[in-house]
Amino acid sequence: MSTGTRPPHAAVLANVGRHIALTPEEQGLFTALLVPQHVARFGYVLRAGQPARTLAFVVRGCVRTFATDEQGREAGLAFAWEGWWCGDAASALAGRPATLTIQALEATDVLHLSLEHLEHLCQQVPKFERFFRLLFQNGFLLAQRRLQALLQWPAEERYRRFCRQYPRLSQRVAQKYLASYLGITPEFLSAVRKKQP
After folding, report:
1. How far apart are the C-alpha atoms of 119 and 1, rounded to whole Å?
2. d(Cα 187, Cα 88) in Å, to the nearest integer?
3. Cys bridge to 33: 19, 29, 117, 173, which one at CB 3.0-4.6 A?
4. What are the C-alpha distances in Å from 11 to residues 29, 135, 195?
5. In 10 A of CB 178, how many CB atoms?
6. Would you put residue 4 in left (φ > 0), alpha (ψ -120 to 50) or beta?
7. CA–CA separation, 172 and 83 (whole Å)
8. Neighbours of 12 (CB within 10 A)
9. pLDDT-based confidence at residue 142 (cuts at 50, 70, 90)
10. Rounded distance, CA 167 to CA 173, Å?
11. pLDDT digits (tens, 9 = 90+) for 69-107
12. 63 within 8 A of 103, measured Cβ to Cβ
């Protein structure tokens, strides 16, 4: 896994450190449970139908999470990039195969933490209960805000807000994936972009 000159686990430890303070021993226990994966551009972190057993932390790159209906149409649900977590938590927690697909939009490095190891970690280091509670809580709030945006705001406003909130991401993600996430067609998004100053 290529992480430049930074230690391989620096990014995930910094992410965790925003919410809880770990001793060096606790850091070691945590990082020993992480499994690295390199995913080529357009490769998969997770495919629908596979066992969903892990959460993944994006060290480098960018991924999209989407669902596919019976007609093969994709609905974009989320993006994750450096410093973000991703996964099909609902399927994993239910012990069912994944219903979501996570695809790399760039060459991507992730660190996987199995739910089994997460459980062990929370027992060994109870402060991780707080970290993962906050992680799931924030994920729930993001999903709720996105649903509210789809219901309340016209497409142009959704696009403007996305660009304000994630200015660099809007340049990294192909138009068709961004359009899917915003709930509009790529053609409509193209027209919206042309109108932007």
Report:
1. 25
2. 29
3. 117
4. 16, 16, 38
5. 23
6. left
7. 15
8. 21
9. confident
10. 11
11. 999 999 999 999 999 999 999 999 899 999 999 999 999
12. yes
User: Is the four-CA dihedral 85, 90, 93, 99 of positive or negative sign?
Assistant: negative
24's enclosing H/E stretch is: helix 24-32
Kind of pairing between the strands at 74-81 and 62-68: antiparallel
Residues in the chain: 197
Q: Supply the DSSP string of 108-174, one letter for each residue.
A: EEEEEEEHHHHHHHHHHSTHHHHHHHHHHHHHHHHHHHHHHHHHHS-HHHHHHHHHHHSTTHHHHS-
Taking 80 as the threshold, does the pLDDT of residue 56 lie above it? yes
As a whole number of angstroms, the distance between CA 126 and CA 176 comes to 42
Query: Which residue's structure tokens are 């100053």?
Result: 197
